[in-house]
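W.,

You were right to be curious about this one. When I first looked at the sequence I had no strong expectations either way, so I just let the prediction run and decided to look at it fresh. Below is the sequence, 126 residues in total, followed by the output.
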Amino acid sequence: MSALTSQLEEFRRCSTAEQYFELLDVDYDPRVVAVNRLHILRFFAEEIAGLHDGADAEVSPEVLLRDYRAALIRAYEAFTTATALDHRLFKVLKDRAPEPAGFVPMSEITVERPATTQTDEKGQQR
C-alpha cells in the first residue's frame, strides 16, 4: 500500500477539524477553528462533495488529497475573512436571514392622483 493510499484511508477516519488540518498539512489558527469549527467543516464538506462528480475514471489518491487540501484551505479562509452570518450555511441561520432593507416590489407600488378641484363660475375653488 502506498503512502498516499494510506494517507487517504487516514483522511476517511478523521473526525475533528484539527485532524483534517494536520493530515492535509494546512496551517491554521486554533482560535479561528474554535469559533468556526462546525461552519468550516460544513463548508469543507460542501466543497469536497462535488469535487469529482462525473469523473470518467477513478481519481488517484494524489489528486484526491491535493483537491481535499485546496478545499480545506478555501473553507478555512472563508471564515478568516467573513463570519458565519455572512455565509449562512446552516438552516437556522438561513431562516433568520434579514429581509433586504428598503426593497419595495413593483406590485406594491400604486399611484394616487389628487382629487381634481372644481371651480365655480367666479373661479373660486369649491
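Here's what jumped out at me. The helical segments are 3-13, 17-23, 30-49, 61-81, 84-87, 91-95. And, maybe more interesting for your project: The chain has six helices and no strands.

Coffee later to discuss?

I.
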